[in-house]
Amino acid sequence: DTEVTQTPKHLVMGMTNKKSLKCEQHMGHRAMYWYKQKAKKPPELMFVYSYEKLSINESVPSRFSPECPNSSLLNLHLHALQPEDSALYLCASSQEATTLSGANVLTFGAGSRLTVL
Amino acid sequence: GEDVEQSLFLSVREGDSSVINCTYTDSSSTYLYWYKQEPGAGLQLLTYIFSNMDMKQDQRLTVLLNKKDKHLSLRIADTQTGDSAIYFCADEGYSTLTFGKGTMLLVSP
Fold it and tell me: A54 vs A57, B41, B49, B62, CA distance in Å?
């Protein structure tokens, strides 16, 4: 299995809703990432998990709450979002979170397209 | 902070070569990457180059790196309509990737 699977593919939510995005990989990767991508922009890093521990939080608002229940799963819990949070949310994974043992090649999922009304 | 710049748009005819350019500022970059994103999809790694190399070839793809000028390019030979996509260069120092803004490649028949 060489894929990163993200669910749901599309999500529409109101500003008072609570929802979650899910990401799964079975490649034995020990680093997992959440990126946010607005239209016609590059992906922006949100969070990095390394060996199931949060290692990087790029000053993301607390209405986004990541969770890594085990080495194969990564969730992003959403609560009280704003319309400007509408974007494509990309999950990625890699062998490790550094380049100390070689290129840090990220495998991306297809993304979850989020619309906040 | 780190900065990665790319031209935003390139249009070529099918069968021509495409060259996408990228400049970066982080002198500590160990690897530089090219990713491809098709509409509605995630990013797909095309190739990468170690910073002490100046060229890497992989089938139709040739990556050139000028470390002195911090300039990276991706050449696609015999460009096909299926190559139409957004191409992102990215550099990496110790940990996270910094992506350029992406170059939209449009290939016309």
Answer: 7, 26, 28, 36
CB within 8 Å: A111 and B92: no
Spatial CA neighbour of B106 closest among B83, B89, B90, B88 = B83
**φ and ψ at A26, to 5 degrees?**
-125, 40
In terms of CA atoms, which chain B residue is nearest residue A89? Answer: B42
**Measured between beta carbons, which residues in chain A are less than 8 angstroms from residue B35?**
108
Which segments within A8-110 are labelled E, that is strand? 10-13, 18-25, 31-37, 44-50, 53-57, 64-70, 73-79, 87-94, 107-108
Substitution target from A2, A56, A88, A108 for chain B, most B beta carbons within 10 A: A108
| pLDDT (tens digit per residue) in B38-57 | 988 899 999 999 988 999 99
Whether B45 sits inside 8 A of A109 (CB atoms) is no
